[in-house]
Prior knowledge:
Two copies of one chain form a homodimer. By secondary structure, chain A is of the alpha/beta class. Chain A folds into two domains: 9-60 and 137-239, Rossmann fold (3-Layer(aba) Sandwich); 105-134 and 243-415, Rossmann fold (3-Layer(aba) Sandwich). In chain A, 35% of the residues lie in helices and 15% in strands. Chain A contains 14 helices and 14 strands. A six-stranded mixed beta sheet of chain A has the order 4-5-13-10-11-12, sandwiched between helices. In chain A, helix 2 packs across helix 12 and helix 8 packs across helix 9. The radius of gyration of chain A is 22 Å and the shape is globular. Chain A starts with 24 loop residues before the first strand and ends with a helix. Strand 8 (201-205) of chain A pairs parallel with strand 14 (422-424) of chain B. Chains A, B: Keywords: Lyase, Pyridoxal phosphate. Chains A, B: Its cofactor is pyridoxal 5'-phosphate. Chains A, B: Belongs to the threonine synthase family. Chains A, B: Its EC number is 4.2.3.1.
Amino acid sequence: xxxxxxLSTESTTTGSVTPVDLGPAVALSCRECGHRVPLGPVFxxxxxxxxxxxxxxxxxxxxxxxxxxxxxxxxxxxxxxxYAPLLPVPANVAEKPNINPGWTKLVQADNLARELGVDxxxxxxxxxxxxxxxxxxxxxxxxxxxxxRAFDFTxxxxxxxxxxxxxxxxxxxxxxxxxxxxxxHDLEQGKVVMAAVYGGELIGIxxxxxxxxxxxxxxxxxxxxxxxxxxxxxxxxxxAEGSKTLAYEICEQLGWRLPDQLVxxxxxxxxxxxxxxxxxxxxxxxxxxDRPYKIFGAQAExxxxxxxxxxxxxxxxxxxxxxxxxxxxxxxxxADGPYVLDIARRTGxxxxxxxxxxxxxxxxxxxxxxxxxxxxxGGVTVGVAKKLIxxxxxxPTLTTVVLNTGDGLKTLxxxxxxxxxxxxxxxxxxxxxxxxx
Amino acid sequence: xxxxxxLSTESTTTGSVTPVDLGPAVALSCRECGHRVPLGPVFxxxxxxxxxxxxxxxxxxxxxxxxxxxxxxxxxxxxxxxYAPLLPVPANVAEKPNINPGWTKLVQADNLARELGVDxxxxxxxxxxxxxxxxxxxxxxxxxxxxxRAFDFTxxxxxxxxxxxxxxxxxxxxxxxxxxxxxxHDLEQGKVVMAAVYGGELIGIxxxxxxxxxxxxxxxxxxxxxxxxxxxxxxxxxxAEGSKTLAYEICEQLGWRLPDQLVxxxxxxxxxxxxxxxxxxxxxxxxxxDRPYKIFGAQAExxxxxxxxxxxxxxxxxxxxxxxxxxxxxxxxxADGPYVLDIARRTGxxxxxxxxxxxxxxxxxxxxxxxxxxxxxGGVTVGVAKKLIxxxxxxPTLTTVVLNTGDGLKTLxxxxxxxxxxxxxxxxxxxxxxxxx
Lengths: 437, 437
């Protein structure tokens, strides 16, 4: 995570003070002190340095308004823009060039349920590997693109070690932005290819991911960074809202019903907090019945600062040095960690972690039961769901949604030990000798 | 391709003679001599050895029937099962466990159009990388699964060098079949992982792909193969119908309109012939207006038997030994080659090929213009589209759909030379020195 530093309004582009059309978004509001500022490319409160969030006016004041909204959503496109009335994007967003992520499958996972001891028909996997660049990052980058248009940015940027680089590269290419992505210079060749193929600039930084982040923060404050939208820094308030669409889709796909339990991965913690925000919005808007739900956070043991804090009963999160195969979750100092702790405790959920071996077992379990090949992050959520059931913390009789946020093709190394069952000569004799006939 | 050999009715399972419920499918009919046999796990005519195809009764006899069908489709799920009334599957197919491919994006590719000199709003990419295992093979395997259920098969099998192995493994896992897939024993480790992760049996055959195929044909005729459905051999007539859904989706996504021109890759040629079949069905059913369309076939120069035959004016296809990076298209003796030649000539299309360098250029072109990272097969179709425009064979003022049938993540090696734009130290000075600021 980039450090949360305040930008004074003077240092931002002029776009931040002129009114912009981002649909129902009306202002930025500090999550800590409630201070409001106009919509602009800022991410930290000028009063208290707290994180800024989007404040909305959805214009829904009656049951008739709710019904109209529901119909409008259901008649919308099969992507996140069906929820444009609830996102910081202009109403005509679907007409603009965008890679149009979302509306991924909610898979009723009866085979997995049987293995985990969950009641039939109660377990679902929200499979975000179906997004255009095969991770949930497409959802958040799509929002950042619209904010970048609104603020007249011409270059899209980010620091990344994988999924985000590809998502930014692809979205920028299609939307007509220059992109310039910063990564540690010694990333695996496969990840470099996935990020570079979209033709944007890909800059290797001599150093580790923290060095990359520090450099990006410097660049934002420098004239050289003028006109640059860093999707996960100065566009973060907009970007982060993309995760709300996971909550919207899950509820709509369940027939406008809240799930009882959700198992969500934790990297920065932003996704989990925005899923909670999305569920709360649906309740307030009257689109779903107001009843309790529990949110469970999932981490890898090798990077489990939030899980450790949860179990110790702490309100603050002590940073860790990550060491896990679940690299897309490996943020040792998660910015939204404390909010995640709040949500897990408030909803009656929990935060749990699994070790790398359990991650791999869970990837293979999901693949052989449901035909879904998940990234390591999906191994973390499925593995944690299994552990929570064994612990008695997750109720196997209730409707449960487990998130898979990425694609196994991106983390092939994690399961590199799977292989051939047998090698035979091309003859029936050899087939029988191998005990296969 | 497996050799087309006839199976006598005696040698097939009893499922072939008892009536089965495969929706509108009523019989198998020989493409060459028209001889009809009951639905069963057979693929070649007992009279003339010609390929068997599904014969349907769609029950559409009036404009009112057409309108009802259109409404039923539009109200259907966001996957291929919206077209269940036109496929060899039972009416309740959507309720069965299946990986539910299809309804992938038809991307209006205005950036690519600009680069290729096509009129704005006229060029579309049908992007099948969005399928569950990220290739169009999920469409065909989904049909084979339903046929396997109908014929009481318990094991799903195939010979494969890549996409098909993963598609069969995933679909079998979810649908509750045993799977046993045969591949050359020396495949790249990445491809082995992608196929093995779903937990089915994966057997390496000491030999090349032809040896694998020959062995599979032997196994079908042997008692050891009893109860085995080879998706692309004894279930081929059902399997192949899955490609019709590409035609259906393209037309529905264009607003129930035929495209003027399609650029389709050729491996066995089956996909191209079934797209044509699907378009003809939509015309006959009254779902689209009856007007001309042109189908263009695309091959890689290193495996271009159909393109060579087309250009030489031949009706037969002389086999080649493949040598191209477009491995998913590398079938040197394409079973449906002659039918492809017929269709290209009848519709006023053509068959063209591009070399490996042009394939790579086209992959990069599509990625940097539309944010779509295509498999080598997508590089072939985009590269051929570019060449056909330069040749004057493809009209840049007409609505054109180019197919991308797979995902770039599966053929990373093809673009392994893309990489970092620059490497810098984590400082603004270094950033400026590199000419980036």
